[in-house]
Amino acid sequence: MNKLQNTLSISFITLLLLSINVIGAEVDPQIIACNSALNKQDYADAIAKANLAMKQSNLASQGMMCKGRALLATGKIQEAKAEFAEADKKASNDFDKTVANLLMGNVEKEQQNYKEAIKLYEKSLGFAQKDDNRNFTRVSYNLLGDTYGLLAEYPTSLKFLEEGEKLAMNDNERADSYERIAANYQSQQRFDKAIEYQLKGITMQQKAGTLDQYAEANLTLGHLYTQSKDF
């Protein structure tokens, strides 16, 4: 697992945790402080803050997840996995169980243990649906789709990606879904469908994406047109 992948995973989950209320209440300041230390890449401070949070039973699970992410970023993969697993056991609500299983799934996915990752993403999906959490249901569908794609099980991958697309709530999320679906069709060498969905993604990026995202989407479209002419 490289540092870029670690950082992306940490930032992604941290942003979601900070943007979504837990069981109708605001995220505890101790957890926010731990996540903030993670964002600053001050992993020693994040671990210290996580250890404090873990002393409170109502924060133990979230503290363990924050500590696990810090350990993961410093390359202590087995220790991180142990924290995530314990966080799942300590979780008192479906939200925390959703996130714990997503984090465990991400580790297994990066270690190319794709079947184990799928099992964990299926658990996160189940907890997210039980919690009626649309954001994490979509995320779980997308991660299942990505992982089945890595196993070259493209029809199954596509099914999950399409379910994720149905739950997209804004143009950024729709762009993400359309481009994932386009990549799936590209892998199947179904370039007509890949181009169709990439064009949809470009439309969304033009509305809501950054200039870099819009340029990257157009570059991908150019590659698809080139590939389609070769087949």
| Cα end-to-end separation | 35 Å
- Poorly predicted spans: 1-8, 18-25
User: Would you identify the CATH architecture of the domain at 3-120?
Assistant: Alpha Horseshoe
Instruction: Look up the CATH topology of the domain at 3-120.
Output: Serine Threonine Protein Phosphatase 5, Tetratricopeptide repeat
Would you summarize the structure shown here?
Helix content is 81%, strand content 0%. With 231 residues, the chain is mostly helical. It is elongated and about 60 Å long.
Your description of this structure?
With 231 residues, the chain is mainly alpha-helical. The chain has helices spanning 3-19, 29-39, 43-53, 60-73, 77-90, 94-110, 114-130, 134-150, 154-166, 171-187, 191-208, 211-230. Residues 1-8 and 18-25 have low confidence and may be disordered. It is 81% helix and 0% strand. It has twelve helices and no strands. It has a domain at 3-120: Tetratricopeptide repeat domain (Serine Threonine Protein Phosphatase 5, Tetratricopeptide repeat), CATH 1.25.40.10. The longest helix has 20 residues, at 211-230.
